[in-house]
Specification:
Layout (H helix, E strand, L loop, with lengths): L9 H57 L1 E3 L17 E3 L3 H9 L4 E7 L4 E4 L14 E7 L2 E12 L2 E9 L3 H35 L1 H11 L19 H49 L5 H40 L5 E4 H11 L1 H6 L3 E6 L3 E4 L1 H18 L5 E9 L6 E8 L9 H4 L17 H11 L4 E5 L6 E8 L18
Helix pairs in contact: 1-3, 5-6, 6-11, 7-9, 9-11
């Protein structure tokens, strides 16, 4: 088949875009959550560090108060302060001195009198008069640095003074820079890299899937050939295998429909043509005949019309049954439990008149048998088998319908069979006898060659097949169908035989 013109690539691009978006969301979402968690953890860490800093300033402030001493004359402080009140000096305690050295340029202290006048230390620290006797914390910005400041009134050797100690290494003022450099910026770079990697990887990795999609799109509706799974990625091969199974089922169903239409058109042509010829011959003859001859002709023509009509009706019913069997074979439908013995009894009643007209001994032998299947199809199977047997068995012959169930092999077998003492079928012809519209050479009577074909198709729809054998008494045909039993066997039932005259 010639492929049609290439369709636009929009569906493939849409598929890529959808996968890209989903992959990006599922990759960036965890990264964003990690960044948020890191942000919170860093903030909590900074808060903990700031709390520890406050506690350290609060511990050092009493030491700063102890560092104030009284002198007889004005002296320079330990750090060279010039603006001292006469009689006061500062001898820094070792912890205070170590604190100031470690944070050189980021720490300061100041001592003011009770009214707020500067005495010792950094003059730039704000003049804040404490409102209570407890330690008070605040923040002050100087030179672009945020200082954590503790202020407290304290009794010292020089009287009541205001002590101030500032630390510019506050972790909370640097946590944003830390988070930006260590968390946000790396995660942002990682997200951008992931976006580029996903776009590149999806486009490259899905190229075989896109080619597969385009190949299916370019196919003709009549092209149901299998797709080559070896060229598809390993993850897509189950999908390709499923598509191939679907193509096979659709192809089988399409072939069955085409074959049915062709067979129906071919086979209906003959009986309809015969029916038309009979009607036209009847109309032509009536123009030139007398009353007596015309009456006898009408009787003969009516019988022929009746036979042609019956044959056409039977053919139509058989073709319909064949179509249904094909549909069941191509499309699995739920099965139901079927009582084969009851089904055989019903079928037997349908053919008692036909068998009695030929003096055929028609009977039923068997016991209880249950299977799972389609009751209406199994009924059609038995109708075709019994109809064939009655039709081709000579007058005064014998036809036996049997059913039963065996306990072995596990899980048990239910079966039905039809046996006659008619002409039978030679072993070399039995396979061909199951073909549609095939009639054995030299066999008389009217038929369409569909009876055994329909029965075989129904059997295959039930995962079994017809078994054609020579009758036990020889010279006839025995057709047997074996199913999986639906319930365990309860023992052999008494034989039951219903003769044609019953």
């Amino acid at each position: 088949m010639r492929p049609s013109a290439d369709p636009p690539a929009a569906p493939a691009e849409g598929m890529i875009g959808g996968l890209q978006r989903r992959l990006l969301v599922w990759m960036l979402l965890p990264l964003g959550l990690i960044g948020l968690v890191s942000f919170v953890l860093h903030y909590q860490s900074a808060g903990t560090a700031a709390l520890q800093q406050d506690q350290q300033l609060q511990r050092l402030l009493p030491l700063l108060a102890d560092s104030v001493v009284v002198t007889d004359a004005p002296t320079l402080g330990a750090l060279g302060d010039l603006d001292q009140e006469p009689g006061l000096a500062l001898l820094l305690a070792p912890p205070i001195e170590e604190f100031l050295k470690e944070r050189s340029g980021f720490a300061a202290y100041a001592i003011r009198n009770a009214s707020g006048r500067h005495l010792l230390g950094a003059e730039w620290l704000p003049t804040e008069l404490p409102t209570t006797n407890g330690a008070e914390f605040s923040s002050v910005v100087e030179g672009g640095i945020t200082y954590r400041l503790i202020t407290q009134r304290a009794s010292t050797a020089g009287g009541e003074l205001i002590l101030m100690l500032a630390d510019g290494s506050d972790a909370r003022q640097r946590w944003l820079d830390t988070v930006l450099l260590r968390v946000l910026l790396p995660n942002l770079l990682l997200m951008l890299t992931a976006v580029a990697a996903v776009i590149w990887a999806v486009t490259r990795a899905l190229r075989p899937l896109i080619d597969l999609t385009q190949a299916v799109q370019r196919r003709s509706p009549r092209d149901l050939s299998p797709i080559d799974a070896s060229r598809a990625p390993a993850e897509v091969r189950p999908l390709v295998a499923s598509l191939n199974r679907l193509f096979a089922l659709v192809n089988t169903q399409s072939e069955a429909q085409r074959r049915f239409v062709a067979d129906a058109a071919h086979q209906l042509r003959t009986p309809l043509a015969g029916l038309q010829a009979q009607v036209e011959a009847w109309a032509q003859a009536t123009r030139h005949m007398g009353t007596g001859d015309l009456l006898s002709l009408r009787v003969e023509q009516v019988q022929r019309l009746r036979d042609a009509t019956r044959r056409t009706s039977q053919l139509a019913n058989q073709l319909l049954a064949l179509s249904r069997a094909d549909a069941i074979s191509a499309d699995a439908q739920p099965l139901h439990q079927v009582d084969l013995q009851e089904l055989c009894e019903n079928i037997l009643a349908l053919f008692l008149d036909a068998a009695g007209a030929k003096r055929i001994d028609l009977g039923l032998e068997g016991g209880a048998a249950q299977t799972c299947g389609h009751a209406w199809l199994l009924r059609e199977l038995l109708i075709n088998l019994v109809d064939n047997a009655v039709k081709y068995t000579p007058d005064g012959g014998r036809v036996t319908l049997r059913c039963g169930q065996d306990a072995t092999p596990s899980p048990g077998q239910a079966w039905v069979e039809v046996e006659d003492n008619g002409p039978g079928i030679a072993p070399e012809e039995r396979q061909r006898a199951l073909q549609r519209f095939y009639r054995l050479p030299g066999v008389g009577g009217e038929g369409n060659g569909l009876g055994l074909a329909i029965a075989d198709e129904i059997a295959r729809a039930h995962q079994t097949q017809l078994r054609l054998d020579t009758a036990a008494q020889g010279g006839g045909l025995r057709v047997r169908v074996v199913f999986v039993a639906a319930v365990p066997a309860r023992g052999t039932a008494d034989a039951l035989r219903k003769p044609a005259g019953a």
